[in-house]
Amino acid sequence: MPTRRAGRSPWLREALALDETDAPILAGEARCDICIVGGGLAGLWTAIELKHRAPQTSIVIIEADICGGGASGRNSGMVLSQWAKFAALTKFCGMEGAIRLAQAFGRSPAEIAAFCATHGIDAEYHPDGWIWGASCAAHLGSWAGILETLAAANRFPFREVTRDEIAALTGTDAFLAGIHDPTAGTIHPGKLVRGLRRVALGLGVVIHENTPMTRLLRRPQPGVVTPRGMVRAERVILTLNAWSLAVPELRSAILVIASDDAVTAPVPERLAQAGYRRKPLISDSQTFVTGYRTTGDDRLNAGVTGGRLGFGSFRSQRFEGRSAREAAIRAAIARGHPQLADIPLAESWYGPIDRTRSGLPLFGRLPGCSDIFYGYGFSGNGIATTPIGGRILASLALDVVDEWSGCGLVRPPEGWLPPEPIRYFGAHLVRAAIDRADRLAHLDRRPDFLTRRLVALAPGGITTSDAT
Fold this sequence. Notes:
Blueprint: H1 10-15, E1 28-37, H2 41-53, E2 59-62, E3 78-79, H3 86-118, E4 130-134, H4 144-152, E5 159-162, H5 163-170, E6 177-181, E7 185-186, H6 189-202, E8 206-208, E9 215-217, E10 223-226, E11 229-238, H7 248-251, E12 254-263, H8 268-274, E13 281-284, E14 290-294, E15 300-304, H9 326-336, E16 347-356, E17 362-366, E18 369-376, H10 382-397, H11 422-442, H12 449-455
Parallel strand pairs: 1-2, 1-11, 2-8, 4-13, 11-18
Antiparallel strand pairs: 3-7, 4-6, 5-6, 9-10, 10-11, 12-15, 12-16, 13-14, 14-15, 17-18
C-alpha cells in the first residue's frame, strides 16, 4: 500500500521516497522475543540498540500510523541537550548520576550526526548552537538558577551572552540577554525518523505500520492485540508518546498538549539580510516557549507551545491539517525577529507533546507486569533524548544491570494528574493563566496571585526545574 502523504507535516512528506510503501499491516499471529509498540524515534532507537547488543533477538514493531507519523515526524527539529534541566536530574539521579546523564545527553547531538553519517541518512544536521534568551525585562535571568546549580557541580555548558552578542550571533536585537549552548543544533526530523526506520529494517526488525494496539495482554508472556492479529512476545516495550494516555497505568504522569509550527518557503536572501542564515536556533523564556530556526534549504521555521489539549485516551487523534494558531506563530516571529515577520508562512502543522511534571522522561516496568516496559514523557525534547532512552529500555528489556537500567530516570509513573474530565478542565485553567502571565510580562506587569498560583501548576520546561 502506498504511503499516504496528504495531511502530513512537510518534514514527513519530504522524507517519504516517491516509491515508498507502508510496511505490511499485521494479519494473523506473530511471535517474537520483544514487541515494541510505537514506531517513532523512541521505538526505533530502542530496536536498533537491541539489535546492536543482541543481534539474534527477534523484534517486531507495531505502529498505529506510519513510522514518524506522530510527534517524531512533525516537531521543530531542535536537537537540545538536557543541561537546562540539570536541577531536575539531580533530584532524581543525585549529583553524580545527574552529571553522567547530562553528559550523555550533551553528547547526543554529535552522536546522532555520526550515526546518520555512518548509515547514509541525509538528515540535514547543522550544529549551529542554541540561544535561550529573554525578550522582555520580566524574563531576564530565567536561567540564573540553572547556572548556579551547574556551577555548584563545576559544570559550565552555557555561556551568558548580552543583547549585542545575541544580535551578532542571530541578527536580532529583540533579546535583552540570554545563554548560549554551542553543542546544540537542528535536524530534519522526518528524514531522521524515516532513516532510522530503514536502518531498523536492515537489521532484521519486522515493522507493521497502520497496525494499532487495541489491547495489551498483561500476563507472564505478554501480548499485543491488533485489529487483524496479535503479537505474542517474551517482552513488550511501550514507546507511545502522547498515546500513552491509552494505558491506564501511565495516564496520570503526562499532560498532552499540542505544539504548533509553521515554515516559510526558502528565503535565503531575506535570511542573509537579517543576519539569520545558518545561525543558532533561538528559544524565548516564556512559560509557553517559542522557538525559531532555519533549515538546510533556508526556510524559517517557527513554533509555539501551549496549544490544543488532549482529552481521554487520545487513541484515534492524528493531528492533521494546518495549525489554528498561525497568528500566534506570526506574533512570536514579530517579537523575536521583527525583520522576518512579514515573510508568508507557506505551511503550518501541529503535534502532541507528552509533558511530565518534571520535564524529564520516565522509564520502567509497567506496575504489576514485570515483562512490559515503558518509555515516555519526552516533553518536547525527544530528538536528543530518545537515543539515550533507547539504551535505558534496551538494558531493562535485556535484564542488564548497568548505568542505564540503574539511572534515576527509571522510576514509577508519577501520580500527578487527576482523572478526566477534571484534568481537562483544570489544564485549560492553567493554560489560560500561563498565557495571561506571558502577555503581562511583555507589558511589564506582574500577574495577580491566582494567576501565579495556577502557573505554578504547569509541567516542567526549560524555564522550571521543579521535580517534586
